[in-house]
Design the sequence.
C-alpha cells in the first residue's frame, strides 16, 4: 500500500507541476469552460422565455451546472492527453519500469485531473457568481454538486487513461474527447428535458449525463431531483472506467 | 493572368486538391462535425423558435447557416496546416529555387480550400434540404448560398495561409483553432442579435464580422432576398479575403526572401 501511495503522489506531483507551470496546458482547460459559460449563459439567456421553462434559479445557474460538470469531464480528458504525451515522449515507459506498484500510476494521473479541475471549477464558479448567478441550494446541496463533479472528473480521467494506455499516442485524442463531448451534448444542455422534442428527447431520456445534469440543476436550485440516480450513474461510471483503465495499464505493460 | 502563371497555379492547385482529398482525417471531420453540431443544436434549441420575435418557425432553418461557418473554420486550419507542413518539410524552400511565382503558390494552395468548401457547402445544403429546409430565395438562392459558403471558406483559408506563413508551424495553427471558435460562438449563431438579452454580448455579436457572414447565408434561407444582409455578407467575405490574401502575399515574400 505504501508503494502505491508513493507512486501515486510522485506521478501526481509531476503532473500537477507540469500542468501549472505550462500555460499552453493550463490555459485551454481554464478558458474553454469560461468560454462555453459566456456563450451559453450570455448569448442564450432569452431561451428562459420559452413557454414551459421554469427553472427557479434562472438561466445563468442553469448553464453553470452544465459548464461545471463539462469542465469536470474535460479536465479528465485533458489529463488523458498528458498521459498519451508521456507515452509518446518515452517517459511513461520508463515510469512503468521504475514504479514498484503500477496501479499507483493510474491513481496519480487521477489526482492530477482532480487538482486541475479544482482550479478550473473555482474559476468558473467565481465568474458565474460575479455574473449574478442565483444559488438557491443550501451548503449540503452545493457540497453534493461538488462531489458529483469530482466523480465525473475521476470517471472521465479513467476513461481517457484507458484510451491513452491502449493507443499510447496523442493521435488517440479524438477518441478520448468525442464520446465525452457527444454524451454531454446529447443531454438537455440548453433547455430542461421536458422541453426537448423528437429524437433528442428520446436519446436524452436514456443518456446517463441527463441524470447528472438534472440532479446538479436541482441541487443549485434547492429542489433536489434524481440525486440518487445521478450518484448511482457516477459511481457506476467510476467503477466501469476503473476496470477499463487498469486493463489499459495491462495493455501498456504487455506492449513493453 | 499570364499563361505561365496559369500553368503554375494549375500544377499547385492539383497538388493542393489531391493532398486535401487524400487526407481523410482532415476532410471527414470537416464534413461530419458541423452536421453533428447542427443536429445537437437543432435538437436542443428547437424550442427557441417559440421565443416571441424569432424570425422563423423552424430552428433548423435558422441554424443551417452556422454549418457553413464551421466548414470555413476547418478550411482555415486545413489550409494553414498544409502550408505550414510545406514550410516545415522544406518544400517551400525547394520551390523558391524554381521560377515559380509566389502568387501561383498562394492561389494554388487556396484551390484545395475551394474544392473542399464546394463539397462541404453542397453536403450541408443537401442535408438541410433533406431535413426539410426550403430556402425562401428559391433555386437561385440555393446556388448563391453555396457560392457565399465557398467565398467565406476561401477568405478563412487565406487567413490560415497567412498564419502558416507567419508562424511556419502547424501546431501554432491548430492552437489558434479555439480562438476562431470564440469568434464563432460570440456571434449571432444561436439567436438573432435583437433577441440576445445580455447587452455586452449583443454588442460583441454586433461588431463581430462572423455575425454578418452567418446572417448573409441565413437571409437567403429564412428571409428571401435581403439586400442589406447580402451586401454585408458578400462585402465582408470579399473584404476579409482580400486583406488575408494581401497579408499572406507579404508574408510569403518575407519567407521566400529569408529562404
Sequence:
Amino acid at each position: 500500500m505504501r508503494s502505491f501511495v508513493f507512486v501515486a503522489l510522485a506521478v501526481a506531483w509531476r503532473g500537477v507541476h507540469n500542468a501549472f507551470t505550462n500555460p499552453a496546458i493550463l490555459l485551454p482547460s481554464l478558458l474553454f469552460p469560461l468560454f462555453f459559460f459566456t456563450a451559453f449563459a450570455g448569448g442564450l439567456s432569452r431561451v428562459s422565455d420559452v413557454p414551459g421553462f421554469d427553472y427557479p434559479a434562472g438561466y445563468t445557474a442553469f448553464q453553470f451546472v452544465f459548464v461545471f460538470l463539462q469542465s469536470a469531464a474535460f479536465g479528465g480528458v485533458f489529463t488523458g492527453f498528458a498521459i498519451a504525451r508521456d507515452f509518446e515522449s518515452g517517459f511513461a515507459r520508463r515510469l512503468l519500469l521504475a514504479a514498484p506498484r503500477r496501479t499507483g500510476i493510474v491513481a496519480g494521473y487521477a489526482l492530477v485531473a482532480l487538482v486541475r479541475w479544482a482550479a478550473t471549477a473555482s474559476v468558473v464558479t467565481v465568474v458565474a457568481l460575479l455574473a449574478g448567478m442565483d444559488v438557491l441550494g443550501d451548503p449540503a446541496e452545493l457540497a453534493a454538486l461538488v462531489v458529483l463533479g469530482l466523480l465525473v472528473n475521476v470517471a472521465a480521467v479513467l476513461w481517457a487513461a484507458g484510451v491513452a494506455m491502449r493507443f499510447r499516442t496523442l493521435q488517440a485524442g479524438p477518441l478520448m474527447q468525442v464520446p465525452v463531448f457527444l454524451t454531454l451534448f446529447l443531454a438537455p444542455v440548453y433547455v430542461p428535458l421536458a422541453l426537448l422534442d423528437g429524437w433528442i428527447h428520446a436519446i436524452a431520456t436514456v443518456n446517463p449525463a441527463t441524470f447528472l445534469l438534472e440532479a446538479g440543476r436541482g441541487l443549485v436550485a434547492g429542489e433536489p431531483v434524481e440525486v440518487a440516480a445521478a450518484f448511482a450513474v457516477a459511481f457506476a461510471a467510476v467503477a466501469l472506467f476503473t476496470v477499463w483503465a487498469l486493463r489499459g495499464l495491462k495493455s501498456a505493460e504487455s506492449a513493453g | 493572368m499570364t499563361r505561365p502563371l496559369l500553368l503554375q497555379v494549375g500544377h499547385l492547385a492539383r497538388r493542393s486538391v489531391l493532398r486535401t482529398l487524400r487526407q481523410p482525417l482532415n476532410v471527414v471531420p470537416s464534413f461530419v462535425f458541423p452536421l453533428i453540431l447542427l443536429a445537437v443544436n437543432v435538437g436542443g434549441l428547437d424550442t427557441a423558435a417559440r421565443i416571441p420575435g424569432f424570425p422563423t418557425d423552424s430552428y433548423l432553418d435558422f441554424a443551417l447557416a452556422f454549418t457553413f461557418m464551421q466548414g470555413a473554420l476547418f478550411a482555415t486550419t486545413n489550409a494553414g496546416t498544409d502550408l505550414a507542413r510545406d514550410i516545415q518539410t522544406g518544400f517551400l524552400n525547394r520551390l523558391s529555387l524554381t521560377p515559380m511565382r509566389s502568387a501561383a503558390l498562394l492561389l494554388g494552395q487556396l484551390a484545395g480550400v475551394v474544392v473542399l468548401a464546394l463539397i462541404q457547402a453542397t453536403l450541408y445544403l443537401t442535408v438541410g434540404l433533406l431535413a426539410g429546409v426550403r430556402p425562401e430565395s428559391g433555386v437561385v438562392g440555393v446556388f448563391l448560398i453555396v457560392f457565399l459558403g465557398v467565398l467565406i471558406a476561401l477568405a478563412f483559408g487565406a487567413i490560415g495561409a497567412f498564419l502558416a506563413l507567419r508562424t511556419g508551424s502547424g501546431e501554432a495553427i491548430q492552437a489558434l483553432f479555439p480562438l476562431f471558435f470564440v469568434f464563432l460562438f460570440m456571434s449571432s449563431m444561436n439567436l438573432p442579435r435583437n433577441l440576445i438579452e445580455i447587452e455586452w454580448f449583443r454588442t460583441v455579436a454586433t461588431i463581430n464580422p462572423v455575425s454578418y457572414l452567418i446572417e448573409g447565408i441565413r437571409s437567403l434561407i429564412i428571409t428571401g432576398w435581403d439586400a442589406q444582409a447580402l451586401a454585408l455578407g458578400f462585402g465582408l467575405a470579399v473584404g476579409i479575403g482580400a486583406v488575408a490574401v494581401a497579408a499572406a502575399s507579404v508574408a510569403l515574400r518575407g519567407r521566400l526572401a529569408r529562404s
Summary: The CA atoms of residues 67 and 94 of chain B lie 38 Å apart.
